[in-house]
Amino acid sequence: MTEIAPEATRILIVDDDAAVRDVITVLLREEGYVCTTVASAEAALDEARKTDYPLVISDVRMPARDGFWLLEQMREASPDTAVIMLTAYGDTEAAVECLRNGAADYLLKPPKVTELIRAIERALGRRRLELARGRYRRSLENRVKEKTAELSRTLHDLESTYSQTLWTLVAALDAREHETSDHSQRVVRYTLAIARRVGLAETALPDVGRGALLHDIGKIGVPDAILLKPGKLTPEEWTEMRKHPQIGFNILKSVDFLQVPAEMVLCHQERFDGGGYPRGLSGDAIPLSARIFAIADCFDAMTSDRPYRKRTSTENARKEILRCAGTQFDPRAADAFLSLGEDELLELSRPSDERPI
């Protein structure tokens, strides 16, 4: 008995006619193929589950389950297997249906040797090409996943660097006004808590948090004599002080990832009734993020000690925000703030090592 090379291609032959199976087997073994034969579609499916066959040659018309059924099952169970169908003479409709359902080729029975070999070579060639494409596609997908993960890590590191830079800058501004970093963190935490109660999307919160963090960056352009003055400001000094939202906006607007925070910084001193500055905007013309921040900032100012006054209680601060809802503050944002319990506000006010953004 001739030993078969281990790399020889395995072919499964399916036909209810034993004579056809034998003839095809003899022909293909002479060409170096390893052949297994079965007499039904069900037996072919069982055999294909046990052994990997690159190619199946099946009759279309068989008792019980026919070749169409087998072709459909093979498409689902072993999509990489090429299937050549054998059809009776003149059965053109069946041949077209086979190709439409995914057959690699079809031949008329009984098949001619040269046509059979060529059909097998074509089918196996297309199969090798499809497998190579599949490997390339999977390799490409893996490379894309790796590059995406690498890019995500880089962006995360870059965002962390940006965040560190912003917090360092704000800490310097707080120190200039004799504040502590707790002030900046509290205002950000209050703002984010209100924003969530209002219903802002989580994806919008980082920008809102950055806007709250940077709200007073424009004060870098305000002279110390005005910024740190312990008493009341003169009208001329107020004119200078009220320039800080525009200064802050001018500083941030050229930074791509700070476009939304820049607009929030510009509008954080506007009032809901139009009595604020620098543009006298009112109602929905003021960005919602700025309307939310105005309440957070006011609440923190009222409940913190200042050189010129002592802090007030949380209860009194809440009453004041309720009183000013519809005039100074957006009523919807005020309602969202007032829905926060005193225990929750107390927790938000406590110093934390974790930065909210």
UniProtKB/TrEMBL annotation:
Keywords: Phosphoprotein, Transcription, Transcription regulation, Two-component regulatory system. The keyword Phosphoprotein applies. PROSITE patterns: HD_GYP, RESPONSE_REGULATORY. Residues 158-353 form the HD-GYP domain. It holds the Pfam family HD_5. GO terms for molecular function: hydrolase activity. One of its GO terms (biological process) is phosphorelay signal transduction system. InterPro entries: CheY-like_superfamily, Cyclic_di-GMP/3'3'-cGAMP_PDE, HD/PDEase_dom, HD_GYP_dom, Sig_transdc_resp-reg_receiver. The keyword Transcription applies. The modification 4-aspartylphosphate is found at D59. CDD domains: HDc (cd00077). Residues 10-124 form the Response regulatory domain. This is Response regulator receiver modulated metal dependent phosphohydrolase. It comes from Anaeromyxobacter dehalogenans (strain ATCC BAA-258 / DSM 21875 / 2CP-1).
